[in-house]
Structure formats: structure tokens, C-alpha cells
Amino acid sequence: MNKFKLIAPIAFAILLASFLVPSRKNPFQSGDNTLTAAEKKEGWSLLFDGKTRDGWRTYKNLPEDSWEIVNGQLHCKKDGVTKRADLVTKDQYASFELQFDWKVDKASNSGVLYHVLETQKSSYETGPEYQLIDDGGYPEKLEDWQKSGADYAMHAPLKLASKPAGEFNHTRLVVNGAHVEHWLNGVKVADFMAWTPEWEKLKSTGKWKDYPDYGNAKSGYIALQDHGGGIWFKNIKIKKL
After folding, report:
1. Among residues of the chain, what percentage have pLDDT more than 90?
2. At 233, which CATH number?
3. Does residue 15 register a pLDDT over 50?
4. Residue 198 CB burial class (10 angstroms; 0-12, 13-18, ≥19)
5. Any domain includes 18
6. Domain that holds residue 157
7. Which candidate, 126, 158, 162, 127, places its Cα nearest to that of 145?
8. Range in 2-11, 57-66, 172-181, 223-232 the model is least confident about
9. CA separation for the pair 19, 21 (Å, rounded)
10. DSSP assignment, residue 92?
11. Which helix (H) or strand (E) holds 42?
């Protein structure tokens, strides 16, 4: 048999496979906790590298033993904790787009807050919150404004889009001046204007009526809430607008 007839199909198959399998060196592809060349060009910055807590500290520099890094994920523990504290960015942000992946353990609750100031005892007293919670397995009845993707205690999510506990979700939080958008797994779940008469009415008649500093700041820290643990984060990145 002609050896060329045997070798030629094999060589063609190898060549075809080289085109079908994406190159690991492709600058427009990325693994966890990294940025592509395109993202860097667009102005994105990593807030978590999967290895260290560089860029973060605790709210008011409080002591804690609740946060750890496990397999490239920032984890707030449920058990074996003696001191709890939220994490906040070292830098402050005004207008920005924040993206991150998160999952909750069963019956867990957390949130990401922005425009946080350290003038009060807790971060939620000043910073609006993008709610993260186990919608399907939380042991208490949830109001709509308590569900994942809500502007907590202000705007209920337009749609329910969270995945079950233990599965990663993807969030986009866009704060552009007074205009705020919440996205969850590709679905827009909140879209509102801050500091309008309608916004002020929601604040003055709801949970925040006794928190005069809530939501007033135009710039501040971003906070990851320690609400008893059971929350995991990765791929946290931000772009200033």
C-alpha cells in the first residue's frame, strides 16, 4: 500500500484539529481571576487575583477570621469563626462597572455594597446593596426586595434570575452617576435613578428611614458583606466610567 495514502489523511486530521482547538495563548480568552488583553485595553482592573487579598482590607480595619482563599475563590466561612467583618476595597469609586461571579451555600445571605463610607458602625448604613441570597432555600420568607439582584430594601428585582445554592452566578453592577443597573446571569433585574423624589420617598418610608446617611454618597468603597458566611466570590473586576 502507498505510504503516502496512509500518512496524508492523518496529517490532514492533525492540521484540522489545530484550527478547531483554541490556542491557550489567545489574548481574547481568559481563565479565572485574569483579564484578557481586550479587557485591559478597555480599562478593566482586577480586584481579586485568586491568590491574595491585595486591594482589600476590613471595614474600619476590624479584626476578622472569617475570610479565606480556597482554590482561587474568596470565601466567607460559616463555621469556626470568632470575629466577623466586611471586606472593602482600598480605593474609592464613583461611576463604574463591576463584574463578579458568586455562589452561596444553602440558606446563606450576603451582598455587595458600593459608595460605602466608614462613618457608621456598619457598611450598610451608608452603602446601597446588590443583594446575594439563596432564594430557593433561605429558611425565612423573603420579601421581593430581599431576593437576589435586588437593590436591597429599595427596588425588588424585575425578574428572578439566580441559580440554586452551590452554583455560580454572574453579576454586572453599573453605577453611572445617578443611573444604576443590576444584571444577573445576563438578565437586567434592576434599573433606577438615585436621589430622585421617587428614590427619596422609598428611602424615607422603608427600612432606611432611620438611616439618614444611607445612599447619600456619590463616591465610596465597594464592600463584600460578611452576613454569617457561606458566600464565595471570584473573577471580581472593575472599570471606571
Report:
1. 87
2. 2.60.120.560
3. no
4. exposed
5. no
6. 31-240
7. 158
8. 2-11
9. 6
10. -
11. helix 37-42
Q: pLDDT (tens digit, 9 = 90+) per residue, 63-75?
A: 999 999 999 999 9
- Cβ atoms of 77 and 152 closer than 8 Å: no
CA 168 centroid distance within chain: 11
Nearest of 50, 79, 49 to residue 66 by alpha carbon: 79
Instruction: Find, among 222, 231, 235, the residue nearest to 67 by Cα.
Output: 231
pLDDT bin (cut points 50, 70, 90) of residue 132 is very high
- pLDDT > 90? residue 28: no
Q: Is residue 69 included in any domain, yes or no?
A: yes
Three cell numbers written together for 65? 477570621
pLDDT band at 1 (very low <50, low <70, confident <90, very high): low
Q: Quick one: cell of 98? A: 463591576
Instruction: Tell me, yes or no, whether 24 lies in a domain.
Output: no
The answer to whether 120 and 60 are in contact (CB under 8 A) is no
d(CA 56, CA 39): 21
Tell me how many domains the chain contains.
1
Point out which residues pair with 89 in neighbouring strands: 56
The rounded distance, in Å, linking the Cα atoms of 204 and 210 is 8
Q: Cα separation of 52 and 43, whole Å?
A: 22
Q: Which three cell numbers stand for residue 55?
A: 486591594
Residue 222, domain member (yes or no): yes
Alpha carbon distance 15, 19 (integer Å)? 7
Distances in whole angstroms, Cα of residue 90 to Cα of each of 57, 122, 144, 178, 197: 7, 17, 32, 23, 32
